[in-house]
Amino acid sequence: MNHKNLLLLFVRAPELGKVKTRLAEAVGPEVALEIYIHLLQHTRQITEKLTADKAVYFADNIVDDGMWPKQLYQHHLQSEGDLGQKMQAAFEAAFAAGYSSVVIIGSDCKQLTQEIIEQAFDALRTHEVVLGPALDGGYYLLGMNKLYPELFRDKQWSTSEVLPATIYDVERLHLSHKLLPELSDVDHLEDVDFDWKADEE
């Protein structure tokens, strides 16, 4: 079977006061924006050489600022609804376009690497679902070979219940699944364990 892979990236345009709002409560909106831009740059670095098609889904408006060049990344706007509805719509569009393995990531995980994303696509050759658990009880990555709408429904998004509830649905549907290494998302000040000013070039 010839796997046609697509990586979905959910991002926000780097606008002051609109990104990393929980982090901004501790460090202020300016520093939160700088950290978010650093995370966007990291996400670009670990995805630009990936041998898969790539589609960036912007939260509010499509910003063509050079961060996501169109020769490497498709540009789309996230749909209406909660996070689950937005992700489901992106997966639906991907499968409708003919992709056979689809993986989604955000831009909040400094520990994420190109190799881990490649592991996710490899896992989808032998499993129906792949999940990247986050230390906060959510997930930094989700992949599947066909649409399972149940994984996007009835979830308390941005809480520690997301991963357990998702795994519960996966097991209830008797889907084979693989868990990737557990990583940390950056949502609070204690999550910032890196020098976010180090690679300004």
Features:
single chain; 201 residues; alpha/beta; Spore Coat Polysaccharide Biosynthesis Protein SpsA, Chain A; 30% helix; transferase activity; transferase; Trfase_1_rSAM/seldom-assoc; Glycosyltransferase; Nucleotide-diphossugar_trans
Give a structural overview.
With 201 residues, this protein is of the alpha/beta class. It has one domain: Spore Coat Polysaccharide Biosynthesis Protein SpsA, Chain A (Alpha-Beta Complex). The chain has five helices and seven strands; from the N terminus they run E-H-H-E-E-H-E-H-E-E-H-E. It has a seven-stranded mixed sheet with strand order 3-2-1-4-6-5-7, with helices on both faces. A hairpin with a 5-residue loop joins strand 5 and strand 6. Helix 1 (21-27) packs across helix 2. The longest helix has 19 residues, at 29-47. The radius of gyration is 16 Å and the shape is globular. The mean pLDDT is 90. It comes from Pontibacter burrus. This is Glycosyltransferase. One of its GO terms (molecular function) is transferase activity. Keywords: Transferase. Pfam families: DUF2064 (PF09837).
